[in-house]
Design brief:
Strand content: 15-25%
CATH topology of the largest domain: Rossmann fold
CATH class of the largest domain: Alpha Beta
Number of strands: 12
Distance between the termini: 27 Å
Order of helices and strands: EHEHEHEEEHEHEEHEHEEH
Strand order of the largest sheet: 1-12-11-10-2-3
Shape: globular
Number of helices: 8
């Protein structure tokens, strides 16, 4: 990885859109700072398209699509996309997303509770449609790394996909991930109004972002990704100096300056 400060101007000139994770990429210790939200608006005002790609639930994504300065949002690790079209919130469901994941998710939850009696679902679980999010540090006492790894193994034994974010383990059934969700959005977005995949940058902070680090030609990690580098087979091309939301601002400001100078 190279420091983001060393990115070449010719690389920046290619970028027409920014995809981003939310938790501890845009947010900082669970809060969306004024500087980070302003950076979203700065990207929009510079003519750069913005699409969050998040593990957060459908309930959150409805709000994000309606109220944030974004073109769309890909939610629940790629299961769907929400966007505004002619004043109405519209939806794309990613091929491979199970139409009724309820029975499988319930069985998986039972297995997890058998092995981890104190496991708690994420506080936003009620607003999810496709996955089960197990909280390991957001609203509970932090789990050890060994416990998180054992939880992932438990989910995978049951045939589920399991990805580690900065706060949750997200588990789901179906043939999709963050990258497939984003590519489906590009293919089906009304009027093909989004730039081609080669002109997007992705920025993230945790192992569940690896499908995007691996596929995006321009990928960035915020500095707190360093804690997870040994989990990644494919790290991003660049790393910011600052962590979390400040790292996102660092990335955005460099990109905005290049577009407006």
């Amino acid at each position: 990885m190279k420091p983001w400060s060393q990115v070449e101007p010719t690389t920046l000139e290619q970028i027409e859109g920014v995809c981003l994770d939310i938790d501890e990429t845009l947010s900082t210790r669970g809060k969306l700072t004024a500087e980070a939200f302003s950076a979203l608006w700065g990207l929009k005002q510079a003519g750069i398209k913005v699409v969050p790609i998040t593990g957060r639930p459908a309930g959150w994504c409805d709000l994000i699509a309606r109220f944030w300065p974004v073109e769309a949002v890909v939610g629940e690790n790629g299961a769907f996309s929400f966007f505004m079209s002619e004043g109405k919130r519209s939806r794309l469901t990613t091929p491979g997303a199970a139409p009724d994941p309820g029975p499988g998710i319930r069985r998986l939850g039972e297995r997890i509770r058998q092995q981890f009696p104190n496991a708690q679902w994420a506080s936003d679980q009620a607003y999810r449609e496709y996955d089960l999010a197990i909280d390991f540090c957001e609203d509970v006492e932090p789990w050890s790394r060994a416990q998180v790894d054992a939880l992932v193994e438990c989910c995978e034994r049951e045939g589920a996909h399991a990805k580690v974010s900065s706060i949750h383990v997200n588990a789901w059934f179906g043939d999709y991930d963050k990258y497939r969700g984003f590519m489906h959005l590009l293919d089906q977005f009304p009027g093909r109004g989004l730039p081609p995949a080669k002109n997007w940058l992705f920025i993230g902070d945790s192992p569940n972002d690896e499908p995007l680090f691996a596929r995006f030609p321009i990928s960035v990690g915020v500095a707190n990704l360093s804690a997870f580098l040994d989990r990644l087979k494919t790290p991003p091309a660049f790393l910011t100096q600052a962590e979390s939301g400040a790292g996102f601002v660092e990335m955005a400001q460099r990109l905005i300056r290049n577009k407006t100078e």
